[in-house]
Specification:
Layout: E1 4-9, H1 11-23, E2 27-32, H2 42-49, E3 54-55, E4 61-62, E5 65-66, H3 68-75, E6 81-86, H4 93-96, E7 103-107, H5 119-125, E8 131-136, E9 147-154, H6 162-187, H7 208-211, H8 219-228, E10 235-239, E11 242-252, E12 263-267, E13 270-275, E14 278-287, E15 293-294, E16 307-308
Parallel strand pairs: 1-2, 1-6, 2-3, 6-7
Antiparallel strand pairs: 4-5, 7-8, 8-9, 10-11, 10-16, 11-14, 12-13, 13-14, 14-15
Helix pairs in contact: 1-2, 1-6, 5-8
């Protein structure tokens, strides 16, 4: 017999989980998606197309406390299980713990390592040998709570940036793991295991301070930093006083005597930049507030020197 499930999420991953839950014979009694924006949200669009009850709240808390009218609205749905396949909102415990079978949340790391909202980028930056996804029962902590399903074995390739790692590897694995967790809960076979707090790590959001290019870093580290910051916010330097963000970066063979930050070559295949102990290939750049363009179309020339941006607040 199917469960009555409420889904909290957004984007294509949450949409795919919604479809999988319905295909498995469960009833989706409510779908919570972000407020309408410039682009249609895939989860909201799928819910509307199927005639499901759709709620679009910007937040669920006010001054740190659950918003009573939203909690009451949710309670009326009679959900037996909450599923959070991809969400950026923080649900209050009044919602997380209300369903008879609790809540399931997907996180794109092998918890308890790499808690936080920028785990994908940090796993690249820190050179993790293996990554994966975790489905856990959230509590009041950040990415804390018992683990229901964990799938690893994902290798970070030398050309993977944060976007590629998510869309090509962790997103499909996350859908698979979430649906497996729902199956276990529905069948009564789930065996949640507590997270080992002694192994927990937490990383902050990746901002411009993290994304600032430090040409003194060894090429191995700098390569990982630049890929971990791609697509957002984008690793940044300066050229003739203008901000330059570098995208589609990866390390290539070879080294030279050029000072780090020197543009070695620019052609149809991209741009090569000298780094400490090696070289980096750059596919696209963004100058100032402009759009991303192919490096060959950016106006940057061989011999130009990309300088380190000043530290934030300097």
């Amino acid at each position: 017999m199917g469960l009555r499930i409420a889904i909290f999420g957004e984007a294509q991953e949450a949409r795919d989980v919604l479809v999988g839950i319905l295909d498995a014979g469960h009833s989706v009694v409510g779908v919570y998606a972000p407020p309408a924006g410039r682009r249609p949200d895939p989860l909201a669009a799928e819910a509307e197309a199927r005639g499901l009850r759709l709620f679009r709240h910007r937040r669920f808390r006010r001054k740190g406390a659950a918003i009573p009218e939203i909690v009451k609205e949710y309670e009326a749905l009679g959900a037996e299980l909450n599923v959070l396949p991809y969400t950026t909102v923080f649900l209050p415990l009044e919602i997380l713990n209300h369903a008879r079978l609790g809540s399931l949340c997907r996180h794109p790391s092998l918890l308890p390592r790499f808690r936080g909202g920028a785990s994908i980028g940090w796993q690249i930056i820190e050179g993790e040998p293996e990554v994966g996804v975790t489905i856990f029962q959230p509590d009041a902590g950040v990415d804390a709570g018992p683990i229901v399903v964990q799938k690893g074995g994902v290798r970070i390739d030398p050309t993977d940036n944060a976007a590629r790692l998510y869309y090509e590897k962790l997103y499909p694995l996350g859908v698979e793991a979430t649906l497996e967790a729902v199956r276990q809960v529905a069948a009564g076979t789930a065996k949640p295991l507590p997270q080992d707090e002694s192994k927990a790590t937490f990383q902050p959001l990746i901002d411009d301070a993290v994304a600032r290019i430090d040409w003194a870093l060894p090429v191995e580290r700098l390569d990982r930093v630049m890929r971990g910051c791609d697509p957002a916010p984008g690793a940044h330097a300066r050229l003739r006083g203008e901000e330059v963000r570098l995208h589609d970066v990866h390390r290539i063979e070879g080294a030279g005597a050029e000072p780090p930050g020197t543009v070695v070559s620019v052609d149809a295949s991209g741009m090569v930049v000298a780094a400490a102990g090696g070289r980096l290939a750059v596919g696209r750049v963004r100058l100032g507030a402009g759009a991303k363009v192919a490096a060959a179309e950016s106006g940057i020339r061989a011999g130009d020197r990309l300088e380190a941006a000043p530290p934030p607040g300097a």
